[in-house]
Write a structure and sequence with these properties.
It is a single chain. The protein contains ten helices and no strands. It has about 220 residues and is mostly helical. The protein folds into two domains: about 25-80, Arc Repressor Mutant, subunit A, CATH 1.10.10.60; about 90-220, Tetracycline Repressor, domain 2. The longest helix is centred in the last third of the chain and has 21 residues, at about 170-190. InterPro entries: Homeodomain-like_sf, HTH-type_TetR-like_transc_reg, HTH_TetR, Tet_transcr_reg_TetR-rel_C_sf, TetR_C_Proteobacteria. Keywords: DNA-binding, Transcription, Transcription regulation. GO terms for molecular function: DNA-binding transcription factor activity; transcription cis-regulatory region binding.
Amino acid sequence: MSGQAISANPHPEAKSPSGPGRPKDLAKRSAILEAAKTLFLRDGFAGTSMDQIAGEAGVSKLTVYSHFGDKEHLFAEAIQSKCRDLMPDELFEFDDLRGSLRQQLERIATAFFDMVSSEEALSIHRMLLAPGNGDEGLRRIFWEAGPARTHAAFGAFLASHAAAGELDLPDAHIAAQQFFTLVKGELHSRLMCGLCEPLTAAERAQHLQSAIDMFLRAYAVR
């Protein structure tokens, strides 16, 4: 069983492109999305223009608008796509062939920590938190496209393992939040402040194993 279905449009207020005509050029759409991921994560929302995205993708600005409707909708699509690149839906599938529960949690924790501790993720978080950068609407777009999708998928994963008798969970959604908070730990806050050197492989493994140990002690079936 895979994680909960994620909305195709994480920002329902944004204007979705529509209308008659031939099917959109998927190669151009992919190029636009890749350009948006690169520029938004590097330069932030305010520092990236639709003209820049069009130039990076090698298409006209009209083509960008035709595929994605507006800048906010493209930002949401870019964040969601980047999260799927780093934490694909398959990571949250309930499948005994993928190994033990601990092994699956190790893979999820590693992918999540690598994602949130990357320079790209740290940069976009700093941008959204800086005064004058990223109003509430933009932060909501980011939350729904990124963290909310990941929490929902992981919550469904935990609920499946609870139903199989492997976990004792009163609330899978809360447990998912707690797991990711443990995985972040103090390290993520220090990285956000620029007060932490990159971890060695051994240090990262020790940190993640400690988080998983605590989570399983809290929710193991007794």
